[in-house]
């Protein structure tokens, strides 16, 4: 593992333990065993480290969406929706403890918002990507043409986010079987609403 990967791994650990707001670049560099100067050779700022943690160290929501876009027809719609719900549950369960501290300060949130939006990495991206995937299912004739895809994406992601919020609030790590069951239930509910 190279220094960049070690920094991202250390950042994920520090951010999980301390939240984004309190995870300083100094603490991240120290946890990785490197100088802060080396950290800045790989990353522009803490926001870039945060987005790297989201894309490289957490469950691969983006990769799953890419795969579903390319091969949606290879599996039944119900299986695709359950797979999407399952990875989304895992992603939010992992990212919620890190991201929640962004809301501890209006100034911190505003600064972070400005930086991620300038890089097209904001929280609206998963919504747009899920709606795009659902449009592919419409094209395949498996979702009704009159289905509200933006609302469907919001319902799916919102339900997964709420589940992660409750688990984090309860300081509970749900077992994989529970996540599998909940993903299938979410997929089945959405399927009833949108299937052609």
TrEMBL record:
Domain of life where this protein originates: Bacteria
Coiled coil: none
GO molecular function: DNA-binding transcription factor activity; transcription cis-regulatory region binding
Residue ranges flagged as DNA-binding region: 24-43
HTH tetR-type domain residues: 1-61
Keyword terms: DNA-binding, Transcription, Transcription regulation
PANTHER family cross-referenced by the UniProt entry: HTH-TYPE TRANSCRIPTIONAL REGULATOR BETI (PTHR30055:SF234), HTH-TYPE TRANSCRIPTIONAL REGULATOR RUTR (PTHR30055)
Protein name per its UniProtKB record: TetR family transcriptional regulator
Organism: Amycolatopsis keratiniphila
Gene designation: rutR
